[in-house]
Amino acid sequence: MWFIPMMLVAGAILLAYACLGIDDAATADFARYYPQPYAGGADSIRMMLSAIATSMITVSGITFSLTISSLAQVSGQLTARVLRNFMSNLTNKLVLGFFVGLFAYCIVVIRTIRLKDDAAGAFIPALSVFVAMALAVIGIGVLIYFIHYVALSVQASTVVSSVADETLKTLKKLYPNLLSKNDQENSATSPPVQAGRSEQVVLPHKHGYVQLIDEQRLRQFALDHGCVVRVDAGTGDFVTSQSPLVSLINLDQSVSQSISQAINRAFSIHSTRTIDEELAFGIRQLVDIALKALAPAADDTTTAVLALDYLSAILVDVAQRQLQPELVTLSFIPKHPTFANLVNGALDQIRDRAAGNTVVLTRLLFLLQTVARPTTHSSRRSVLISHARLIAEQADATLHSDYQRSLVRQQLVETLLTLDEPEKGFSHLLQPVSAPA
Q: Residue 54: inside a domain, yes or no?
C-alpha cells in the first residue's frame, strides 16, 4: 500500500524543485504581466499555498477513511479474503499518493517565497505557484472520482467480477494449453523403489502457505542426482516443520543439509495464500462470498447466485484446459490440481449450505449444464454427472413442496440431457411428495 504513494511524493518533490529551478532562471515578471493569479503579493501566495497544503492533508485523511470503511464493509458483507484485492488496488494507491504528493509539493514551494522586506528581495515562483493551483483544481476532480469509485467498488457485483477476472487471468497464465478431445488427463505415479534404496522426505525450514514452486529447479535436481522428485506440498498447501515438501525416490545417499536447503530454495513459503500462482484460491474467494451470502444472518440469495454465475465462467474455462503438464517425466512428479479437485472445491460447500433453497439448487444444476457444453473429456463429464446426482439428492432431501421439486427436476432433466446421461438413473429423485387429488 505504501510504495506507490511514496513514489508519488518523491515525484512531487522533484517536480517542485524543477519548477523552482525554472522560476529562478526566468527573467520575466509574471506577477506584473498576469496580475490576477498573483494578486495580493507574496503574503497572499503563501496563504494560498498553505491552504492548499492543509486541505490536501484533510482530503488525504478522508481518502484513507473511505478506504478503511470500504474494507470493513466488504469484509463484513462478503469475505475477508478479498481485502488483499483492495489493498493492492492501483486506484487507491494513486489517489492517496496524489493528495499526499501535492501536500509535499506545496511545502517545498512555500518555503522559497520571499517578501519585499527580505534581505534577498521579493521572490514569487510564478510557475511553481501556477502548477500548485492547477494541481489543486485537478485534486477536486480526483476526490469526486474517488467517491464515485468507492461507491462502485463496495458493490457485490464489482467485487465478484474483479475476483473472477483475476482468477481467469491466473488460469490462462498457469495453464495456457487447451485440452483437445483426444487428450488424456496426464498423471504420473511414483516408480517402484529399487532394492537397497529408499523413499526419503525433505521437510520445510519454516511453516506457512506454499505460494510458488520452482519446478525447473526441482527437475534439474532430479537429473543431477539421478533420482525421482515427487512434490508432496502443492501450491496453496499449508506446511509445518513436519510436513513433507518432496519425496526423493531412489536417491543413492541420505538427505543432507545441503540437499534440504537446495530443495527448500525451490519453494516460496509465506504466511498467506496468493491468487497469482494458485488457481484454487480465486475459486475459494468466490465460494466464501456465496457461503457468506447463504448464511442465516445474511440470507442473500442474489449474491450467492452472482458468485455461482462467475464460478461457471471460471469452470467453463477450466474444462477446456490441460491442467497437468504435457510432458510428465519419470524423474519429476509435480502436484497440480485436477478438474475434480477444482469442481469439488467450487461446489461442495455451496451445495451443503443451499439445503432447501430452490433458487440456488437450480442454479447449481444450471452451472453444471453450462460447464458440460464445452467439456468433451469423458472423465470430466463423469465428475459433472456425480455432482448433478449430489445436488439432486440434496434437493430431494430438503425440498418438501411439489412446486419446488418440479422446478429442480426440470433443470435436472435439462442438465442430464446436456451431459448425455440417461435420466433413468435419477428417476427415483424429486418425485412429488403428495398424491394427486
A: yes
C-alpha cell at 353: 449450505
- The pLDDT of residue 276 is above 90: no
- Residue 360, all three cell numbers: 440456488
pTM: 0.81
CB 364 within 8 A of CB 354: yes
Among the listed residues 373, 367, 341, the one whose alpha carbon sits nearest the alpha carbon of residue 354: 367
Per mean pLDDT, which range of 83-97, 149-163, 195-209, 255-269 is the poorest? 83-97
Of 154, 176, 209, which residue constitutes the final position of a domain? 154
Asked if the structure places residue 211 within a domain, the reply is: no
Residue 74: give the domain boundaries.
3-154
Q: For residues 46 and 19, give the distance between their C-alpha atoms in angstroms, rounded to a whole number.
A: 16
Report percent pLDDT > 70 for the chain: 87
Q: How confident is residue 25, by pLDDT bands cut at 50, 70 and 90?
A: confident
Q: Is the pLDDT of residue 345 over 70?
A: yes
Is residue 93 within 8 Å of 4, Cβ to Cβ? yes
**H helix or E strand, kind and range, residue 231:** strand 228-231
Q: Which helix (H) or strand (E) holds 25?
A: helix 3-25
Residues 150 and 290 in one domain: no
% of the chain beyond a pLDDT of 90? 58
Q: Are residues 147 and 289 both part of a single domain?
A: no
Contacts of 11 (CB under 8 A, 6+ apart): 101
3-state secondary structure 121-186: CCECCHHHHHHHHHHHHHHHHHHHHHHHHHHHHCCHHHHHHHHHHHHHHHHHHHCCCECCCCCCCC
Please write the tens of the pLDDT for every residue from 144-175. Answer: 999 888 888 878 888 899 899 999 999 999 99
pLDDT, residue 437, reads 47
What are the start-end ranges of the H helices in 295-377? 301-319, 339-353, 358-372
24: helix, strand or coil: helix
Q: What is the dihedral of CA 329, 331, 335, 341, to 10 degrees?
A: 50
What's the one-letter identity of residue 312? S
What are 374-394's pLDDT values in tens digits? 998 899 999 999 999 999 999
Contacts (Cβ under 8 Å, ≥6 apart) of 171: 279, 282, 314, 317, 318, 321
Q: How many domains does the chain have?
A: 2
Domain membership of residue 315 (yes or no) is: yes
65 — phi, psi (to 5°)?
-65, -40
Helix (H, G, I), strand (E, B) or coil at 64: helix
Residue 81 lies in a domain: yes
